[in-house]
Write a structure and sequence with these properties.
By secondary structure, this protein is mainly beta. The protein contains 6 helices and 27 strands. The protein has helices spanning 62-68, 115-119, 146-157, 194-202, 289-292, 313-327, and strands at residues 2-9, 15-19, 24-29, 33-37, 52-53, 74-81, 91-98, 102-103, 107-109, 112-113, 138-141, 168-169, 182-185, 210-216, 223-229, 244-248, 256-263, 268-272, 282-286, 302-306, 331-339, 343-344, 348-349, 360-365, 374-386, 390-395, 398-399. The strands form 7 sheets. Strands 3, 4, 16, 17, 21, 24, 25, 26 and 27 form a 9-stranded mixed beta sheet that branches. A hairpin with a 3-residue loop joins strand 25 and strand 26.
Length: 403
């Protein structure tokens, strides 16, 4: 079992060549992912300090090396392989376009621009509709699900633009829904960033989680990216996937180095939207039951939230309620270390695929000083690691059992 790295074409995902990246760091979250080449440990002078020596590239001239790692044309896919066979592509885990390189005489280093980061540099506007003079065009979207609207935004930012192709699948195009009416105005282009529009929908009170998942296409020669999002009925990702069951107890267990972070509740959220001075749009969301009732009430905590692009009172109220809902109870968040290849319940091998962010999980915890023994239902929120088979898992927040 090992990590594999493959160079691909940035526009169509065509696999170009394998590349040996001996030192790197990676992270996968619900919406985004990251990858960077990393230095060796301080004091290790056997390498120049960066992780991709020029000798690791299947190239012998400056032109060939520059073309293979061209930030305007090339991407890299990090895959986890279950076998040591050299032709085993592995299961894609992280994909991104090569970022700005730093070259030295011996080697080069670079980050990756994730699919969501690429979409931060794409604007949702009809091709040819923005021009000199005036641009009155409006893209109207009605009668679709939330994720259907997100796919429309993604298509206008990618495949519907000249030269805008990326290897991203938008599978919910045209999915019907109700109460879903929106419009993107060409003259409001500064607020039409695709990343922003996707995140704005996801941040609504009933907005769906979303993610970008790389996969090897059926022909075995292309890496594509699948946009996945929760439905209007269930905003969660992988809602129909059985949870992975992970056990913890002092000593040897699937979860090592388990840590619990605590967060205090917020009872009131003040939200502000578009406008200036006294005309600023405002909304209030609150739940004061925990500070006004009982014999041992909590202390009041308040928070402010702002989105100057929101000019709809109902939308601003929904954002405020979402912020309140996320923090109205005392919360805990569990992190732990896992080892890829270990077997969970049902002989499920732990890997970047079986622990994708958004997947449901059940943590069976025994003997932890601040948590009662029992099963804790949650979901994977974040994975991070390096070139080894060890990863750090951050799980979704849960209500503190001690309210």
């Amino acid at each position: 079992m090992s990590w594999r790295a493959w160079l691909t074409d940035a526009r169509d995902g065509r696999v170009i060549a394998p590349v040996d990246v001996p030192y790197f760091q990676w992270q996968m979250g619900i919406r985004d992912s990251s990858f960077t080449t990393a230095s060796r440990e301080p004091g290790d002078r056997s390498a120049s300090g960066l992780t991709l020596p020029w000798s690791a590239l299947p190239a012998s001239t400056p032109d060939q090396r520059s073309l293979l790692l061209d930030p305007t044309r090339r991407a890299l896919c990090l895959a986890w392989a279950d076998s040591m066979a050299g032709d085993d592509f592995g299961d894609p885990a992280v994909w991104g376009v090569i970022g700005e390189r730093q070259d030295t005489q011996q080697d080069t280093s670079f980050p990756l621009s994730s699919p969501l980061e690429l979409l931060s540099q794409r604007l949702v506007v009809r091709e040819g509709a923005f021009r000199d003079g005036r641009s009155p065009d409006v893209i109207g979207v009605d009668g679709l699900s939330y994720r259907g609207i997100m796919c429309e935004a993604g298509l206008y930012a990618t495949g519907r633009k000249q030269g805008g192709t990326l290897p991203i699948d938008w599978p919910y195009r045209g999915e019907k829904g109700t109460r879903r009416k929106t419009s993107w105005k060409a003259w409001n282009i500064q607020n039409n960033g695709c990343k922003k529009l996707l995140c704005d929908i996801a941040d609504l009170q009933d907005g769906p989680d979303f993610t970008f998942i790389p996969y090897l296409a059926g022909d075995g020669t292309h890496v594509r990216i699948r946009f996945e999002a929760g439905s209007d009925g269930d905003r969660r990702l992988f809602a129909s996937t059985p949870p992975v069951c992970l056990a913890y107890h002092p000593g040897a267990s699937l979860l090592d180095d388990l840590q619990v972070a605590h967060a205090a509740p917020v009872q009131r959220v003040y939200a502000t939207g578009a406008g200036s001075d006294e005309s600023v749009l405002t909304a209030l969301a609150q739940d004061l039951s925990a500070i006004t009732g009982g014999q041992d009430p909590q202390i009041l905590r308040e928070a402010a939230w702002s989105d100057t692009d929101t000019d709809n009172p109902a939308v601003l109220k929904s954002h405020a309620q979402a912020q309140l809902q996320a923090g109205r109870s005392k919360l805990i968040q569990i992190t732990a270390r896992v080892h890829f290849g270990d077997l969970a319940a049902g002989n499920v091998a732990l890997s970047p695929s079986s622990l994708r962010p958004g997947m449901p999980a059940v943590l069976s915890i025994q003997g932890y000083p601040s948590l009662p023994d029992g099963d804790y239902r949650t979901a994977v929120m974040l994975l991070s690691g390096d070139q080894t088979d060890t990863a750090r898992v951050t799980f979704d927040v849960m209500e503190d059992p001690y309210q």
